[in-house]
């Protein structure tokens, strides 16, 4: 049986731990370059799309 999540936040990538929370997996980056690298890597692994919420926070979403 295949289960496919749609319209879900699959992951959150942030620079500061105090700016995010919730039920999705959260990854913390040490700088903006690492934030982008993690976002694009997770985008490919999770088969989702990366969206920038603000300069310090990205989410991976499956539409």
UniProtKB/TrEMBL annotation:
Q: Which domain of life is it from?
A: Bacteria
**Matches recorded under Pfam families:** YIEGIA_cap
Which InterPro entries does the entry mention?
YpzH
What protein is this chain from?
A: Uncharacterized protein
Q: What is the organism lineage in this UniProt record?
A: Bacteria, Bacillati, Bacillota, Bacilli, Bacillales
């Amino acid at each position: 049986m295949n289960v496919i999540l749609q319209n879900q936040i699959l992951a959150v990538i942030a620079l500061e731990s105090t700016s995010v929370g919730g039920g999705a997996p959260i990854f913390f980056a040490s700088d903006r370059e690492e934030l982008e690298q993690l976002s694009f890597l997770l985008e490919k692994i999770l088969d989702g799309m990366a969206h920038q919420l603000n300069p310090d926070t990205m989410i991976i979403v499956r539409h």
